[in-house]
Design goal:
Mean pLDDT: 95
Shape: globular
CATH superfamily: Aldolase class I
Distance between the termini: 25 Å
Helix content: 25-40%
Oligomer: single chain
Number of strands: 13
Radius of gyration: 18 Å
Strand order of the largest sheet: 3-4-7-8-9-10-12-13
Structural class: alpha/beta
Order of helices and strands: HHEEEHEEEHEHEHEHEEHEHEHH
CATH architecture: Alpha-Beta Barrel
CATH topology: TIM Barrel
Low-confidence stretches: none
Number of helices: 11
Number of domains: 1
Length: 339
């Protein structure tokens, strides 16, 4: 793979600029057919979760392709599913630059992007143009200037527009970069939101003749008591899946390192252990009734296997791709197929 030689050059660029350049280069390579020159020999390892049969257990986490502009190229890397977004009802620029930072000594990223995206209408247009036939998750959130008391309206608005284009919908209530968003994980707020989402899901499934599952993405910075309470509410409301976890506001593992104290959500290797602990706690309550998608700190195939061992049915990658390169997808697919 060329990535080990390219990474030092990319890491000389400002992180968000390198992100854009890499995706543009991936699109160009895909258009030229270069991503298919070497047979990958991907094993058949289907996984059934949320009423969907996934070709394999390894997916792309939300955040890498916020506007669904690079689906075709990303799909060629061998993902079993791709999650795009987070998308909001209205376009918004996100937080001021700089807002994405590497912490190479810890194989970590810190971001405070703030749901920068072009809005749900543009995302749905891009999905249609891509013609992607695989499993597509669309991650939805609220606009930054919508009061938390009216957050459900934003989620319902995004849900209605994204529903026809999605294989499943992911409900992001756990980003640390939108003010008060994590309040939606509290008991009464969560009950109101989940009830509204399930009622709308029922209406949309009848209108479209197709049931699109709902998964809720939660934070790693929750006590066992709060995790148990959330798990019980997922069961009570009939939520189809849970994504564990989002980025963390903790700084364990990056203390004293350059950029280690930047505000925002921390991802990468320092999150691995906490994410797996959250998965174990959720599985103790949920068992097989609500499938868990494990995210956080998957830098090697062994980390993906750890997530499945903790109780996850599927896994998702993001920061590991930045440090290990796109070959990590194939390595994880093969490792989990052997499991």
């Amino acid at each position: 793979m060329l990535y080990p030689f390219l990474r030092p050059l990319l890491f000389r660029l400002e992180a968000e600029r390198a992100h854009r350049w890499t995706l543009s280069a991936l699109d160009a390579a895909h258009a030229l057919g270069l991503l298919h020159l070497t047979p990958r020999g991907r094993p058949a390892a289907p996984v059934h979760a949320m009423g969907i049969t996934f070709p394999n257990a390894v997916g792309l986490a939300a955040g890498l392709d916020k506007n669904a502009e690079h689906i075709a190229a990303l799909a060629s890397l061998g993902f079993g599913h791709i999650e795009v977004g987070t998308v909001t009802p209205r376009p918004q620029p996100g937080n001021p630059h700089p807002r994405l930072f590497r912490v190479p000594q810890a194989r970590a990223l810190i971001n405070r992007m703030g749901f920068n995206n072009l809005g749900v209408d543009r995302l749905v247009h891009n999905v249609g143009r891509a013609g992607y036939r695989g499993i597509l998750g669309i991650n939805i959130g609220k606009n930054f200037d919508t009061p938390i008391e009216r957050a459900a309206g934003d989620y319902l608005s995004a849900m209605r527009k994204a529903y026809p284009a999605a294989a499943y919908l992911a409900v992001n209530i756990s980003s640390p970069n939108t003010r008060d968003l994590r309040r939606l994980q509290e008991d009464e707020e969560l009950d109101r939101l989940l009830a509204a989402l399930k009622a709308e899901q029922e209406r949309l499934s009848q209108a479209h003749g197709r049931y699109v599952p709902l998964a809720v993405k939660i934070a790693p910075d929750l006590t066992e008591e709060r995790l148990n309470a959330i798990a019980r509410r997922l069961l009570r409301h009939g939520i189809d899946g849970v994504i564990a976890t989002n980025t963390t506001i903790a700084r364990t593992g990056v203390e004293g390192l350059p950029h280690g104290e930047e505000s925002g959500g921390l991802s990468g290797a320092p999150l691995r252990e906490r994410s797996s602990t959250v998965i174990r706690m959720l599985y103790a309550v949920l068992g097989e009734r609500v499938p868990i998608i494990g995210v956080g700190g998957i830098m090697r195939p062994e980390d993906a296997k750890e997530k499945l061992g903790a109780g996850a049915k599927l896994v998702q990658l993001y920061t590991g791709l930045i440090y290990a390169g796109p070959g990590l997808v194939h390595e994880c697919v093969c490792a989990l197929a052997r499991e």
